[in-house]
Amino acid sequence: MTPIDDRETWQEKLAALPLVSFDAGETVFAEGTKTGRLMILKSGSVGIFKGDIEFAQVAEPGAVFGELSALLDEPHSADVRTLEKSEFHVADAAALLQDPVALLYITRVLARRIDAANQGLLQLKIMLEGGESRGLIDKTLDGIEGLLSAIGSGYIRAGVGISGYPFA
After folding, report:
1. Hey, what's the torsion of the CAs at 70, 73, 75, 79, to 10 degrees?
2. What is the pLDDT of residues 94-117, one digit of tens each?
3. Domain 3-112 top-level CATH class
4. Where are the chain's structural domains?
């Protein structure tokens, strides 16, 4: 079995990681800090914030947080705050990123985000050529920003719908 299809091994690795819980409204990662941790959502939901602006919500179990900071060796680029009681698997980023199964999982999460952002850019181009309203275009731009900046592989209200039309 190739690592891409080795979900069982990934689930075993997750199960071996310690768990941490946050109540609603708590900060998981603060913009500008470096934690050296990866957080993998087990349950709950979080909002991704730049200042006071929430630009994405993530609720998909398995969503990864902190991967860009770890891979780029840079501070976290946004605040991640819980929207409800949430539980995460916690990993030392440097250690987990040495594991081929984990690295491939995170790579696939990032690839899905890039693919969704590319689709959003195509939708934006079609909207611009079609003369869509400024408000609709702004929502789509916000959605693309959310896709590129959000940390998970599943998004709620990220702004850009699969069908090509933004949603609130």
Report:
1. -20
2. 999 999 999 998 888 888 888 887
3. mainly beta
4. 3-112
